[in-house]
Write a structure and sequence with these properties.
192 residues, alpha+beta, Jelly Rolls, six-stranded antiparallel β-sheet, 11 strands
């Protein structure tokens, strides 16, 4: 009889390519916002992060927020959580050479990113394992799997939506292209 397998403490990343918003309109809004908003400095190095976006800032932002809320609550349901509410949402503009340092989102339950304008060479989002498995997994394995990997990368590409646990350490590689990478990040948590 085979051993029963159970996955405890898995790191989940949900992904989809979506076409629910007009990315050109969002790109235009991002550059307008950058001109009128000094922004904040968190994990972004060499790039721009806006202050929190609000309902009514732009019709496409509202449309995107509605879509993300549906997907977030589908993810919450899959993992046994109650419905979550939006805590904050912000714009990121990463020009050539800009990147995001490794971080997590304290206070949130699920977080994520939507890529407004991104393509190959602009840096993948990278998730790092944080359970110290690298000290136990042999340097060379027969086959790299979800169990043996210490890092996962997801491409930055227009229309990509990634949702993941807020405690999952992540970074965004440097933009090695000659154009800006534009994204919208968000945090969801327990209803207040």
């Amino acid at each position: 009889m085979a051993m029963h397998t159970e996955l405890w403490f898995p790191s989940v990343v949900w992904s989809q390519i979506t076409h629910v918003v007009n990315n050109q309109a969002l790109k235009h809004f991002a550059y307008e916002r950058k001109q009128n908003d000094v922004g904040v400095k968190h994990s972004n190095v060499g790039g721009y992060q806006s202050d929190s976006l609000r309902a009514g800032d732009h019709p496409e932002i509202d449309k995107l927020a509605k879509h993300i809320e549906i997907e977030i609550n589908n993810c919450a349901k899959q993992t046994g959580l109650f419905n979550l509410e939006l805590y904050n949402m912000w714009l990121n503009i990463n020009p050539p050479n800009a990147y995001n340092e490794s971080h997590h989102h304290i206070g949130a339950v699920l977080t994520g990113v939507y890529y407004v304008d991104a393509h190959e060479g602009q840096g993948a989002i990278q998730f790092d394992r944080s359970d110290n498995a690298e000290y136990h997994i042999p340097e060379y394995v027969e086959k790299e799997t979800y169990f043996t990997s210490t890092r996962a990368k997801y491409a930055a590409k227009s229309g990509a939506l990634y949702i993941f646990p807020a405690w999952l350490k992540h970074s965004v590689q440097g933009n090695t292209s000659n154009t800006d990478r534009i994204s919208i990040s968000f945090n969801y948590g327990v209803k207040r």
